[in-house]
Specification:
Distance between the termini: 88 Å
CATH topology of the largest domain: Immunoglobulin-like
Number of helices: 6
Shape: elongated
Largest sheet: 5 strands, mixed
CATH class of the largest domain: Mainly Beta
Strand order of the largest sheet: 3-2-1-5-8
Radius of gyration: 28 Å
Number of domains: 2
CATH superfamily of the largest domain: Cupredoxins -  blue copper proteins
CATH architecture of the largest domain: Sandwich
Number of strands: 10
Strand content: 15-25%
């Protein structure tokens, strides 16, 4: 009887663990909360918020769902560990019944991890493919050019190198460049560098892309869904003033964006065009670095283009 009881006990433990995990998953599904609601209650589980684009929301949902799944599995495993510590603690000098193997348990802890990894891989591949997807006819095309140590944003009339620049915004040592974009439209970014590798990073977009010199270009698209001002930075160590290579993303309504482009095409500076649409003409999320680097020969273009 003792041997039979010992053999069936792991099966009971496995069933209890499965029921516990299933109950936890069911409670999560029946709670009716969105991933953002759940994440906000727990500090987003280390993720920097839900973001300001449709692509960012999908990555955020994947992160929160993966974290919840990991916590459910973790609680189940920790529960079994502590249960075994208490249930099978030493009660005397008699050696307990030895079991060489238990096929159901071995199948469980082999198949379950494989299934978990497969599910995570599947949804990661789906989200990654969607984030990297490019449309044939984006609403706006912006060429991002990095240089030591600032940014140039060219609004283009088409896709690729053969397209024409409609108007530009160029940063300088004195003025932080402001990239103005409309909410609710597909924005394509085409990145290039005049010198070394930089990295275009707006934290609220929840990902960054390297800006490569030469013919290699990183191209990606986002659809912004929240108006506001967001700090942008270079996230690749590129030289002496890398830490101060900032810009600002201003997301506004399509109507204001059209007015901004019209003012720029009419010859107004970026600051004048921002005033024309009722916006602060200067960056509010960051500030320029107080330096005399504009007088040096290695400031490659940009310092003389303040306010363009």
């Amino acid at each position: 009887m003792g041997a039979r009881s010992s053999a069936t006990r792991p099966r009971a433990v496995g069933r209890a663990a499965g029921l516990g995990l299933g109950a936890a998953a069911l409670l999560t599904l029946l709670s009716g909360c969105s991933m953002e609601d759940v994440g906000s209650k727990f500090g987003h589980f280390g993720w920097p918020g839900p973001g300001v684009s449709l692509q960012a929301h999908k990555m955020y949902d994947l992160w929160i769902a993966s974290t919840i799944a990991a916590l459910i599995v973790g609680v189940g495993v920790w529960g079994l560990i502590f249960w075994c510590v208490v249930r099978y603690r030493k009660r005397g000098e008699e050696l307990p019944v030895q079991t060489r193997f238990n096929m159901p348990m071995e199948v469980l802890y082999t198949v379950a991890p494989v299934l978990i990894v497969a599910v995570l891989f599947y949804y990661t591949a789906i989200i990654q493919t969607d984030v990297d997807k490019l449309s044939k006819n984006p609403d706006q095309i912006v060429q991002v050019t990095g240089f030591k140590w600032n940014w140039e944003f060219d609004y283009r009339d088409g896709i690729g190198k053969d397209a024409n620049t409609v108007t530009s915004t160029i940063g300088s040592s004195d003025i932080i460049p402001i990239l103005v974009l409309p909410v609710g439209e597909k924005i394509r970014f085409e990145e290039t560098s005049k010198d070394v590798i930089h990295s275009f990073w707006v934290p609220e977009l929840l990902f960054k892309r390297d800006v490569m010199p030469g013919s290699v270009r990183n191209v990606f698209e986002v659809t912004l869904d929240k108006e506001g001002r967001y700090v942008g930075r270079c996230a690749e160590l590129c030289g002496t003033y890398h830490a101060f290579m900032n810009f600002e993303l201003l997301v506004t309504s399509p109507e204001k964006f059209d007015q901004f482009l019209t003012a720029k095409k009419a010859g107004q500076s970026t600051q004048e065009a921002l005033i024309a649409i009722g916006e602060n003409p200067y960056a509010t999320t960051t500030k320029p670095f107080d330096t005399r680097r504009g007088t040096h020969s290695w400031n490659q273009g940009g310092a003389t283009a303040a306010g363009k």
